[in-house]
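Bug #2210: token dump truncated for ANK_REP_REGION domain-containing protein?
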Amino acid sequence: QGHPGVLESLLRARVDVNHQQADGRTPVYIASCRGHLKTVELLIKALADINIQAKTGKTPLYIASQNGRYEVAELLVRESILQCKLESIQPALRCAQEFGNSRVVNLLQLALSIGDSLPADNGSIAQRRPATCDSELSQQLHSALSQSGFVDSRAALQSAVADVLQDILRRRQTHDGYFVVGSFSEGWGNSLKTLNGKTDTESDIDMMQLVQGPLLHPTGLCECGAVQTVEYKNGHVLSPGFASSPSTAWLGSTLRPAFDEVLARLLCCYPPIAPLHKDRVFKSNIAEPVLKLLQQDLTSDSSPCHVVHAAPPGKAGSSSV
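Reproduced locally. Full output below:
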């Protein structure tokens, strides 16, 4: 409806600027149709894709040319030239000629003549020009992600689905010694492989199984008075007999993600928690009360202290970490 202030608020709330209605129309398409110049400017600045077609095959430039929206068409043409994406100009020109919009016809003919002098690599100017700062790189990445369909709304949906899958797995655990320790919803993001949201096969849920057996008593930390203790140094407990690979991989299916099963042993006590060291607390931006809550949560009965079975590379069977 051409309300820039409302649109600016929505953009700050990170709405999907390329959301399509059932008929395929996007916000920039609708604004171009109605001649809302300021709205189109704001959407382009927010990296809206001006080349998304409605189900009729019409682009924002086509509908602006059809309706004689000269200023909007001029803005869209300028952006098309900057991106070196001129394929929408010829259909828009034919439409403007058909509807007798002479000013738009002249504009589009000029744009085509300019386009003929541009490099034929079909790459945008932004892609050819090296980015000068992190913010520009971020904008280029955001634009590439958005144009490929990997937008905030789809990312949120993918996270929600991952959380549901992980919760189902938690509820189906049949053994008390099993714990979900990885985050599939974080894993798919960290393992993003292509711009359309496809993830690496290593995006999985990590399952930890606590092996039944006697507790391990770290030397210098144990307060149980145990006679037999194990060496502890910098987060490593040395104990013989374990393989280099700490996990067993289970393939996923269309009904569930893959997961890794990791074996672990219980310790009698928690070692010092690194983020809670005095020097770390002093340097941290995290408030000390929050760190204390973290310590309480980690040392509660629901969070058993454990070490994962794994050996350093080339030392399988000789020691575990």
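Output looks complete on our side. Residues 118-132 have pLDDT under 50 and may be disordered. Marking as cannot-reproduce; reopen if the truncation happens again.
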